[in-house]
Write a structure and sequence with these properties.
This protein is an alpha+beta fold and 221 residues long. It is 40% helix and 25% strand.
Length: 221
Amino acid sequence: MVAKDLVSNTVMPLVFKDTVKQSMSIMAFYHLRHLPVVDKKLLVGIVSEDDLLNFDQEDSISKYVKSESLKKIAVNEEKHIYEIMQLMGDHKLTMIPVINSNEMYLGLITMEDILKYFTESSSFTESGSIIVLTIKKRDYSLGEIARIVESENGSILNSSIHYLPESDLIEVTLKLNRQEINPIVATFERYNYTVKASYSENDYYHLFQERFDHLMNYLNV
């Protein structure tokens, strides 16, 4: 999945003649704290809600642009979704503009767009269970992990890695196609893997739904 597959034009970009009041209204309506500014189809940069609060409601975006150093953060239309997520996380953005190779503005991607993609992907919709392993970085081998799962007639639908800060350990989260995972957990432990957590389908569905609802409530503030 790349940026051009996720890009949306539901939220129109700001132009120089728009006022601060209009900009804040758009942000409030779409639950965003950032918006792109475009001039003649070229991306100028990103405005933030926090910065707009320092201006008069009737000031134009052109006044904002002249007095502020706009961050020109964007992704090329061919960027992978994981690179998009990292860039948004690094800059704490609620949306990110998408441009082509000529820096022409194509649209934007919001956090909700990314969440929707993952919640609708087969790795979430297909039934199964979750196992979380704690492993030393030097010992990590997805091939070996897959072989252990397959030895118990299971398969990995999705996997992700979380690096623990100031540690030589990583957390590996596995989405498996098996609903009964006790034999797989036991085999991991037999091979001296640390199983930090495991969730049945109903357990992790309710956990994910709870976390998702909390995030949606946060976005709607």
